[in-house]
């Protein structure tokens, strides 16, 4: 593997382009915005989405997906709700058997499908993998130490991909559970909104810790119901990502939750941000999946109700705190 194609020129796509370049790959990154492409090619900086970070000289940007046709591997990083349309546009240029690493976190609204399912429907000949874990784009782009999960059903391919993109400061840990990697990445964004609300309402560190713990139980129940392994959710792509995203305002999802907790309307918050807040888009399908599978997920359901405008933040908090008392069983994530 010598040539990497990155689909998505946002902050995370740009950070992964940095990783691939540092790993010795030639990198071509596709971005929707001509402004980002021009900035990368002319100044070696994505001033639109990742300002202040000098990019590796091996990174070349393009607005044409066909320029990625000769890539040996693809890292797909468009927002989850745009994954299907973007891959459909790339399909005519995708060679058979192309490894596609899915790096976006979320369930597709309407269909409730995971990104691996979207990939199977749009690029059926592609070989899938999922990259997920605790990773802030700005830190990864600057070369700070990061460990992630690389889940791939094909062990040999997973090993080849890990070796291709690993650097001394970017460590992919292999797994075969793509469902677990996907569920962890999607659910943690919803839970980060809840943790942000706790912060914005100044409910204290005890409440914050309780929400992370009970949220992790919800994430695990949902993942297991979908066919994931509980131990996958206890790793980097589940608990690790949850702790990071729920612990720093650097997270778009947590910072959005903070603003909600401070009383700002969701529409106003989203209008003031250029980047996508994946937790807002993922909350409705997470709630719908939990209902469909009979999974108890009160925190995710409360966030979805807030996002949908069905309840206020205070009503959602009151509803969670008035739930019946119940035993805590570590073996069942009850």
Automatic annotation (TrEMBL):
Its EC number is 1.1.1.94. Residues 5-156 form the Glycerol-3-phosphate dehydrogenase NAD-dependent N-terminal domain. Pathway: Membrane lipid metabolism; glycerophospholipid metabolism. It catalyses: sn-glycerol 3-phosphate + NAD(+) = dihydroxyacetone phosphate + NADH + H(+); sn-glycerol 3-phosphate + NADP(+) = dihydroxyacetone phosphate + NADPH + H(+). Keywords: Cytoplasm, Lipid biosynthesis, Lipid metabolism, NAD, NADP, Nucleotide-binding, Oxidoreductase, Phospholipid biosynthesis, Phospholipid metabolism. InterPro entries: 6-PGluconate_DH-like_C_sf, 6PGD_dom2, G3P_DH_NAD-dep, G3P_DH_NAD-dep_C, G3P_DH_NAD-dep_N, NAD(P)-bd_dom_sf. Its main location: cytoplasm. The keyword RNA-binding does not apply. Signal peptide: none annotated. Catalyzes the reduction of the glycolytic intermediate dihydroxyacetone phosphate (DHAP) to sn-glycerol 3-phosphate (G3P), the key precursor for phospholipid synthesis. This is Glycerol-3-phosphate dehydrogenase [NAD(P)+].
């Amino acid at each position: 593997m010598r040539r990497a194609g990155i689909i998505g020129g946002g902050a995370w796509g740009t950070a992964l382009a940095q990783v691939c370049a540092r790993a010795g790959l030639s990198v071509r990154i596709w971005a929707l915005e001509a402004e980002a492409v021009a900035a990368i090619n002319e100044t070696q900086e994505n001033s639109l989405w990742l300002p202040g970070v000098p990019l590796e000289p091996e990174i070349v940007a393009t607005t044409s997906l066909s320029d990625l046709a000769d890539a040996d591997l693809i890292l797909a990083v468009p927002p989850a709700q745009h994954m299907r349309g973007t891959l459909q546009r790339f399909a005519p240029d995708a060679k058979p058997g192309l490894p596609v690493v899915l790096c976006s976190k979320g369930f597709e609204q309407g269909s409730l499908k995971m990104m691996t399912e979207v990939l199977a429907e749009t690029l059926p000949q592609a070989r899938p993998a999922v990259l997920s874990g605790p990773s802030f784009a700005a830190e990864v782009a600057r070369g700070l130490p990061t460990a992630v999960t690389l889940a791939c059903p094909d062990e040999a391919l997973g090993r080849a991909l890990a070796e291709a993109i690993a650097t001394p400061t970017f460590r992919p840990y292999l797994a075969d559970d793509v469902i677990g990697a996907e569920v962890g990445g999607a659910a943690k964004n919803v839970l980060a909104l809840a943790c942000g609300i706790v912060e914005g309402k100044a409910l204290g560190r005890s409440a914050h810790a309780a929400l992370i713990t009970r949220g992790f139980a919800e994430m695990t129940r949902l993942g297991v119901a979908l066919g994931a392994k509980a131990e996958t959710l206890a790793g980097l792509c589940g608990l690790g990502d949850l702790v990071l995203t729920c612990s720093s305002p650097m997270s778009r999802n947590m910072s959005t939750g903070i603003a909600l907790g401070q009383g700002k309307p969701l529409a106003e918050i989203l209008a003031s941000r250029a980047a996508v807040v994946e937790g807002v888009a993922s909350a409705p399908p997470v709630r719908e999946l939990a209902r469909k599978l009979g999974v108890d997920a009160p925190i995710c359901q409360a966030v979805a109700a807030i996002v949908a405008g069905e309840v206020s933040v205070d009503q959602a908090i009151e509803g969670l705190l008035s739930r019946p008392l119940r035993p805590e069983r570590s073996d069942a994530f009850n």
